[in-house]
């Protein structure tokens, strides 16, 4: 059995605008911009809050970041799919993989409940046999156990699995787990992800089924 594991934010969907709006709500000011801070958005709520506080000239201590995190999460949960959109071709690619016998999962650092909600709103949740979020285990990506436990939840084998992601976090998790990695080039990092040394690059979801078939036969 072959397993395809997907990151969520920046890989399956562009969630940056909703994440940045939530971070600004937590900061109480428009300190982050959707057009300029996409890459930052995919680093998570704490990273956005820390950067916003620094831009405001405030001390971005861990305590202050944690104090603002509930407001960020509340706003995000209430507006989770206002601007979020799937990347073109995602649904067709997932359907093609499933038809070819691939078992699909999600391994994301987004909290599991939020990931479940978002994938449900986007109409994708039933395509994935397993979903592990950033709070599903005591560890999360780039720790390889987050990825290998997702594969295990599918009944898969790391030697017959691929992680599709968009960042060094995904690349490092896959490398440490001994899992092939495909990085998308349509995220905020663009073609620069090639420098991370993935097994393959993905410029278009229409190419994914054939690409994965070549990687794991």
TrEMBL record:
<comment type="function">
    <text>Specifically catalyzes the dephosphorylation of 2-phosphoglycolate. Is involved in the dissimilation of the intracellular 2-phosphoglycolate formed during the DNA repair of 3'-phosphoglycolate ends, a major class of DNA lesions induced by oxidative stress.</text>
</comment>
<dbReference type="InterPro" id="IPR037512">
    <property type="entry name" value="PGPase_prok"/>
</dbReference>
<dbReference type="GO" id="GO:0046872">
    <property type="term" value="F:metal ion binding"/>
</dbReference>
<keyword id="KW-0119">Carbohydrate metabolism</keyword>
<dbReference type="GO" id="GO:0046295">
    <property type="term" value="P:glycolate biosynthetic process"/>
</dbReference>
<protein>
    <recommendedName>
        <fullName>Phosphoglycolate phosphatase</fullName>
        <ecNumber>3.1.3.18</ecNumber>
    </recommendedName>
</protein>
<dbReference type="InterPro" id="IPR006439">
    <property type="entry name" value="HAD-SF_hydro_IA"/>
</dbReference>
<dbReference type="InterPro" id="IPR023214">
    <property type="entry name" value="HAD_sf"/>
</dbReference>
<dbReference type="InterPro" id="IPR036412">
    <property type="entry name" value="HAD-like_sf"/>
</dbReference>
<keyword id="KW-0479">Metal-binding</keyword>
<comment type="similarity">
    <text>Belongs to the HAD-like hydrolase superfamily. CbbY/CbbZ/Gph/YieH family.</text>
</comment>
<dbReference type="GO" id="GO:0005829">
    <property type="term" value="C:cytosol"/>
</dbReference>
<dbReference type="InterPro" id="IPR050155">
    <property type="entry name" value="HAD-like_hydrolase_sf"/>
</dbReference>
<feature type="binding site">
    <location>
        <position position="166"/>
    </location>
    <ligand>
        <name>Mg(2+)</name>
    </ligand>
</feature>
<keyword id="KW-0460">Magnesium</keyword>
<comment type="pathway">
    <text>Organic acid metabolism; glycolate biosynthesis; glycolate from 2-phosphoglycolate: step 1/1.</text>
</comment>
<dbReference type="InterPro" id="IPR041492">
    <property type="entry name" value="HAD_2"/>
</dbReference>
<dbReference type="Pfam" id="PF13419">
    <property type="entry name" value="HAD_2"/>
</dbReference>
<feature type="active site" description="Nucleophile">
    <location>
        <position position="7"/>
    </location>
</feature>
<dbReference type="GO" id="GO:0005975">
    <property type="term" value="P:carbohydrate metabolic process"/>
</dbReference>
<dbReference type="InterPro" id="IPR023198">
    <property type="entry name" value="PGP-like_dom2"/>
</dbReference>
<keyword id="KW-0378">Hydrolase</keyword>
<dbReference type="GO" id="GO:0008967">
    <property type="term" value="F:phosphoglycolate phosphatase activity"/>
</dbReference>
<feature type="binding site">
    <location>
        <position position="9"/>
    </location>
    <ligand>
        <name>Mg(2+)</name>
    </ligand>
</feature>
<feature type="binding site">
    <location>
        <position position="7"/>
    </location>
    <ligand>
        <name>Mg(2+)</name>
    </ligand>
</feature>
<dbReference type="GO" id="GO:0006281">
    <property type="term" value="P:DNA repair"/>
</dbReference>
């Amino acid at each position: 059995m072959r397993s395809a594991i997907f990151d969520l934010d920046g890989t399956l969907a562009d969630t940056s605008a909703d994440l940045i709006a939530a971070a600004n709500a937590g900061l109480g000011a428009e300190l982050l911009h959707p057009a300029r801070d996409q890459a930052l958005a995919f680093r998570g709520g704490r990273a956005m809050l820390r950067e916003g506080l620094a831009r405001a000239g405030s001390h971005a201590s861990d305590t202050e970041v944690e104090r603002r995190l509930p407001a960020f999460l509340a706003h995000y949960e209430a507006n989770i799919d206002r601007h979020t959109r799937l990347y073109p071709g995602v649904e067709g690619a997932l359907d093609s993989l499933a038809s070819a016998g691939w078992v699909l999962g999600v391994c994301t650092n987004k909290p599991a409940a939020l990931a479940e909600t978002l994938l449900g709103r986007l109409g994708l949740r039933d395509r994935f046999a397993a979903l592990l979020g950033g709070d599903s285990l005591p560890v999360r990506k780039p720790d390889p156990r987050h990825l290998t436990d997702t594969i295990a939840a599918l009944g898969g084998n790391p030697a017959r699995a691929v992680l599709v992601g968009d960042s060094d976090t995904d690349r490092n998790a896959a490398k440490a787990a001994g899992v092939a990695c495909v990085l998308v080039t349509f995220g905020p990092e663009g073609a620069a992800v090639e420098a991370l040394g993935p097994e393959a690059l993905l410029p278009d979801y229409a190419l994914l089924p054939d690409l994965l078939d070549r990687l794991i036969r």
